[in-house]
DNA sequence: CTGAAAGCGCTTACAG
DNA sequence: CTGAAAGCGCTTACAG
């Protein structure tokens, strides 16, 4: 480019960036020639100056166990990703969706972001360890359960969200609530579990909790029913609260297959919604986690960190919205 | 790092990349120290060598007129983005979701991808012009209607997909099919329109076509009905084929509000599905464009281009799957 | 107003 | 086996 315009690289740089002092005509000539030959400064070379590319990365940790962003009917991750990409754009950043940046052989780019957003980190998550060791800015959505106040994080208040549902089930007539969590050791699973345990303790009940792999989706239905309904009839739950929508869908189906009526004999609810919960019969009550708002907040924080600006803590995700559906709505007078 | 290990940068580079010849012990020492101080080579500096970052970019052009990746109930774009990100990872690339890289003030990173995927480019799309001028590799999903064979593209066969639906409507009893396209001048809208025009011509009919903004979604319902049902009764369609699921949802609602029964008096179908088409009453027949497979193919091509490998043309998106629902299913004997 | 020099943090011939 | 030099494509003091 410098050669084409017959000037030095310095002048090209000055002219195109409006820095320094360059004669008007020179600027115009350089701009014209740049347009002609389709010259654009290399983003990489520019990034090298201040080690900033204007790039954010989103690491969706549950992907690790789920192996997809698109579990059938589950749009949570995609909604996070879409909203985060949008928010990033609005702030002049690009957003990159990556898997695990600690894996050997990741592309250069996976380590080149100015700041990272890590959703649902695991206990002692190696991704956070790496990021913090390298002093790369990051914010998590849901804390690392083992390092709660060590890193900037957006609190999910998993326990509080769980209580919203537990209260609802209780009001809907449940006396004995069983909880089905996933197996990932993240704040969502652990925090929700703790909330139920505390709640049961306060009422002198033994908590009924089962952890099953998120990835198994609807398939876990039979196992959940077997687990809670094969023992002492006095110990059977009258409500099952599954953290994932697909688990709840599977439980609902399995219950009905076994002749357990939903909601008459058993209330079922999910801590996060899947499409099938809106279309199944009965439809299933869920929590809408409002991932779009969470993503927006996360991007806001990530950008601040990338630019070295201070972040106002504490940060929290929006309160989940309770979508009450048939699975927890007993017709008055028809309750068992 | 070099200083910390008491060796030259060259040796560090050799040791960490397994290139050149370095004594075993030296390699080990360097690796140990690197681990200790959390040293990782800068992705940007490495990228500068071969101007490759291992970064792909996805430019979803309809975003321009839609202003969101998440129109209520429409998961098409997100499914493309999610699947593309996944496929990229599998091939050792990161995927970046960006808006319009030609806009002034875009982040450096938006111009730093090794190859671009542009979905649904517009006629004479400036994004393609810029990319081709700068000799940045790219592939489009759906051709630029004005430069059909100029750039590598994955053919959507919009006309063929439209014919699938037109044939279905015809078999379901339609004699007069109206088409509602979007207003973006892309291959999808233009190709589908052409297919209907040809089909009508072959049957000596005047084509009934209306283009309305994609972004208006369900709102267009009334306008579509007004447009096609206010004139000469002999000229009224007995089927409306909307390219977008939200348009179809709006048309179905509006028709019913006006006392036009669906499917008895009017068949309605959509060229791409939205959630509401599966849950409305009646449910609406749609085409499933299988965005995941399209995304996977696009990434495959983009990676090949980024690595300078030849691409096997012609390329085509998978054949859409027809999801037949109530809006085009007349009970036998009950048809008008 | 313009350009030669140094530097961003690495890698790659090449010389020792 | 190791390191000094050059270079990737820019930008930023600084000198002229």
Please name the defining characteristics of this protein.
homodimer; 336 residues; alpha/beta; Rossmann fold; 6-stranded mixed beta sheet; 13 helices; elongated; DNA-binding
List the helices and strands and how they pair.
2 copies of one chain form a homodimer.
Chain A: H1 2-5, H2 9-17, H3 24-37, H4 43-50, E1 55-60, H5 63-66, H6 76-90, E2 94-98, E3 115-119, H7 126-133, E4 138-141, E5 153-155, H8 158-171, E6 177-181, H9 187-202, E7 208-211, H10 221-229, E8 239-242, H11 245-257, E9 267-270, H12 275-279, E10 285-288, H13 291-306, E11 315-316, E12 321-323
Parallel strand pairs in A: 1-2, 1-3, 3-4, 4-5, 5-11, 6-7, 6-8, 8-9, 9-10
Antiparallel strand pairs in A: 10-12
Chain A binds a DNA duplex (16 and 16 nucleotides) through residues 7-14, 17, 19-23, 26, 41-42, 44-51.
Pfam family, one (chains A, B): Peripla_BP_3
Protein name (chains A, B): LacI family transcriptional regulator
Keywords (chains A, B): DNA-binding, Transcription, Transcription regulation
